[in-house]
Amino acid sequence: MKRLLTLALIALTIGLSSYNVGNPAKSIFLSNNQNADLQSGDIIFQTNSTGLSAAIQLATRSKYSHCGIIFKQNNGFYVLEAVGPVKATPLTEWIAHGDGGKYVVKRLKNAASVLTPDNLVKIKLAEEQLKGKDYDLTFEWNDERIYCSELVWKMYKRGAGIEIGKLEKLKDFDLTSPVVKAKLKEHYGDKVPLNETIISPVAIFNSPLLVTVKSN
């Protein structure tokens, strides 16, 4: 197992050379491009007012209902996201899925020192271990299925040892809206796991470890 992980790290290190991560604070910027202020490891947020997203917005009292981690490859950007399944989506396609194409990009305040090539490899490896997992409609704190903010939190925790966003319990959210109640009923029946550990998109968004680098 240890040998397999070592080989995986070597392969990812070679692959990430195409991400231009030699100096993640500077070297992967694109000149004269709308994405010139993005870099691998940035966290991107958007809103979608339909279906489950609407319930998430109401329960968390936030307009942001989805997030992912940006990486650059072959001179293009994509977003690592949990949307059923966990996968990489081209950035332009990801943005188009949100309401009005609106989004916000945030970055670690100390990204230059934390997002080293080694840590970026580890963060990407954490995603590789979860790739293909189905979307978790019941928001359970395990790896059997994964939801969007859980993927972001676990990638940073396992890859860089950083906890971005405060973990909460389901009971900490506003569950009073009829829309939220209907979704709880749909996914849990009469046994709502109020003590289930949850990481919400807005908890990551509001983390004091992050700073906004781009929004529209």
Automatic annotation (TrEMBL):
N-terminal signal peptide: 1-22
Name recorded for this polypeptide: Permuted papain-like amidase YaeF/Yiix C92 family enzyme
InterPro entries: Papain-like_cys_pep_sf, Peptidase_C92
Keyword Thylakoid carried by entry: no
Gene3D superfamilies: endopeptidase domain like (from Nostoc punctiforme)
Keyword Hydrolase: no
Organism of provenance: Mucilaginibacter auburnensis
Assigned keywords, A-Z: Signal
